[in-house]
Design brief:
This protein has about 625 residues and is an alpha+beta fold. The protein contains 17 helices and 18 strands. Helix 3 crosses helix 9, helix 5 runs antiparallel to helix 9 and helix 8 packs antiparallel against helix 9.
């Protein structure tokens, strides 16, 4: 008898949203969902290739017995049934949603996920001063407080629990225990923070009003669109909404139980923003006044969700027209089950496409100083690269949604899609950008990580070779390595030359909708420069390198670029740069950090950055 191959997936039961939906008769039947996660050899915890669930409760000095998902009894019934009182189900829930999130990222990016490494200069087992992190740790009961966060220091997700309080706790039991580890949205949100940190290390730094807000927004976008991976939940909500996804619902809400339990009178956040009742348009000026990272990020989330709803309505217009005679007006009566099924299919497909658009765009962003406008351009370019024919109007819908909220990119002639694409550089045709770079396929994630470090070292040595790269070529990349470069740019102690940091070299291989192959190499290069709060000090330091030697710099200013290299032609497709010599960027960061009241945006960012929870799910003022 031939040995059986392992199954492709492991089926696990979860809450589609959170436990509160199971206490409402209208939603209870659809809240118990089953997700399929990639099959892997796991040990009790669960402990797999990517994550390790450690169920220690420091507040009560308890250690809960780890779940064994390989138990025949659990395999036969898709794991434990959803339960608020079973810690082993809590472990199952965080594992299942985490692996679902990882799978969505890997499918969109065309490569495997790596966690942010640790610097390990004194570790003899480290690989070239960096320590490989094989697994992200997840602590389901880490905090006895109404919060959850990704800790870059611990490389872990710490999820809290608390008692519902306040005058109105919604459908929750007053004084009952609320577990953030049972919220699909919170798990997916914090997992997205961890993945994004592994891709873009410098996005942890506050350098403009959008920087940390982008981290929060992107995590919410992933959580929102993963709602649509639960077909039964989507079918139920579409039936209740009569197909109109522009209405607020469980599908547009984030952390409903959590929000009600802290007295929020509804979900903590929502993908649908407020509109002017007379114009039906959102406030396009809010982007200029909203500063707190979650609130500012909500503007970007609403733009993406608005684009999704527009695309969905376009895709189902023919179906609605057969019912109402008007493709722009949804029915005012209950829908036939067959129509509900068709609308569910279109919603699932559209949400999946928009989510993959957003994730792919991460490879087309600059390595530092990211803005919402940069994200719009990255969305357009990444999608045009893979799907040249935008016959469904996805890109136009995204541009319109961003414009309605006052989100504009810099240095563009217009909002036409072709004007928003990153421009292809006119580079020296004699340069072979893949010379010495290993683009072979690696089986293990650790081997892939080591390959990336080796490739980064190779790329760094080539950039230092003045015979290969002129100062003009480096300047196009936003880098400055000439003798005339500002003295505040970090320099080598041995040679005195400006230094570069090749932060990552990532190989991607994506397949387009028509089967076209798009293999690319994504390289991130960063330079560092000392910044001063006073312009006179900056000018002095730039010219002589000191700037009152008795004091240090006030902040770190970074520049650099992302190179997107085509593996077929071996040439650069795009250079996405932030100029290290840019006086305008330096002045903008100085104003952001220093020239405002202590109650403003920067004070909020510094408060977040000073704790071990820069990406807490709930921000508390003061």
């Amino acid at each position: 008898m031939r040995p059986l191959s392992p199954p492709a997936f492991r089926r696990l039961r979860v809450y589609a949203f959170d436990p509160s939906a199971s206490t409402d008769l209208r939603t209870a039947t659809m809240n118990a969902a089953v997700v399929k996660v990639p099959w892997e050899n796991i040990s009790p915890g669960p402990v797999g290739e990517y994550v390790e669930v450690v169920d220690v409760d420091p507040a009560s000095d308890a250690f809960y017995e780890p779940i064994d998902l390989n138990s025949p009894e659990l395999l036969a019934q898709d794991g434990f049934a959803p339960s608020e009182g079973n810690p082993q189900f809590h472990q199952q829930m965080v594992y299942a949603i985490s692996m679902t999130t990882i799978r969505n990222f890997e499918r969109a990016l065309g490569r495997r996920i790596l966690w942010a490494p640790r610097w390990a200069r004194n570790d003899p087992n480290a690989y070239k001063s960096r320590q490989y992190i094989p697994r992200l740790r997840i602590y389901p009961h880490a905090l006895r407080e109404a919060n959850a966060y990704y800790s870059p220091q611990k490389r872990a997700l710490l999820l809290g629990y608390f008692r519902a309080g306040g005058a109105d706790v919604g459908t929750n039991l007053p004084g009952g225990t609320i577990f953030s580890c049972l919220s699909h949205d919170i798990i997916a949100h914090e997992m997205s923070h961890a993945i994004l940190d592994g891709m873009h290390r410098m996005y942890l730094e506050p350098c403009n009003p959008d920087s940390l807000a982008f981290h929060e927004a992107f995590a919410d976008i992933v959580a929102l669109f993963q709602h649509f991976t639960m077909p039964e939940a989507v079918r139920h909500q579409i039936s209740r909404l009569r197909g109109d996804l522009s209405q607020r619902s469980l599908l547009s809400s984030l952390a409903l139980q959590f929000g009600q339990a802290i007295g929020n009178y509804g979900s903590l956040r929502d993908g649908i923003d407020q509109v002017d009742p007379t114009t039906g348009l959102p406030d396009a000026q809010a982007i200029h006044s909203v500063s707190e990272p979650h609130s500012r990020g909500a503007i970007l989330v609403a733009a993406v969700f608005d684009a999704f709803v527009t695309i969905y309505r376009s895709r189902v217009a023919d179906l609605i027209r057969m019912v109402t005679g008007d493709g722009s007006r949804f029915p005012d009566r209950d829908l036939h089950p067959d129509l509900v099924n068709r609308l569910t299919t279109e919603a699932n497909k559209t949400a999946g496409n928009v989510l993959r658009m957003c994730i792919r765009a991460l490879d087309y962003l600059p390595p530092v100083d990211v803005t919402f406008g940069d994200f719009l351009r990255a969305l357009m370019t990444a999608d045009a690269d893979l799907v040249p024919d935008d016959d469904r109007g996805y890109r136009i819908a995204v541009v319109e949604a961003f414009r309605r909220r006052g989100i504009y990119p810099q240095d563009c002639r217009s909002l036409a899609v072709d004007s928003l694409l990153w421009q292809e550089p006119d580079e020296d045709a004699t340069i072979d950008w893949l010379d010495g770079i290993d683009i072979g396929f690696m089986e293990s994630r650790e081997a892939l990580w080591k390959q990336s470090i080796d490739n980064a070292a190779t790329f760094y040595n080539r950039l230092r070779d003045r015979s290969r790269f002129s100062s003009e070529t480096l300047r196009k990349m936003g880098l400055s390595c000439s003798d005339e470069a500002a003295k505040t740019i970090r320099r080598s102690r041995s040679t005195g030359e400006p230094v570069l940091d090749v932060q990552s070299v990532r190989t991607t291989r994506r397949i387009g909708p028509d089967g076209e192959d798009l293999p690319q190499l994504v390289v991130e290069i960063v330079q560092e420069r000392r910044g001063f709060s006073e312009r006179t000090l900056q000018e002095e330091a730039d010219s002589d390198g000191h700037g009152r030697a008795s004091r240090g710099s006030d902040f770190v200013f970074r520049g650099g670029c992302t190179l997107v290299i085509d593996l077929h032609s071996r040439k650069i497709r795009y250079i996405v740069s932030k100029d290290i010599e840019s006086a305008a960027r330096l002045e903008a960061q100085r104003r952001f950090l220093f020239e405002r009241d202590s109650e403003s945006l920067g004070a909020t960012y510094f408060a977040l950055g000073s704790r071990d929870e820069p990406f807490a799910f709930l921000h508390r003022n003061g």
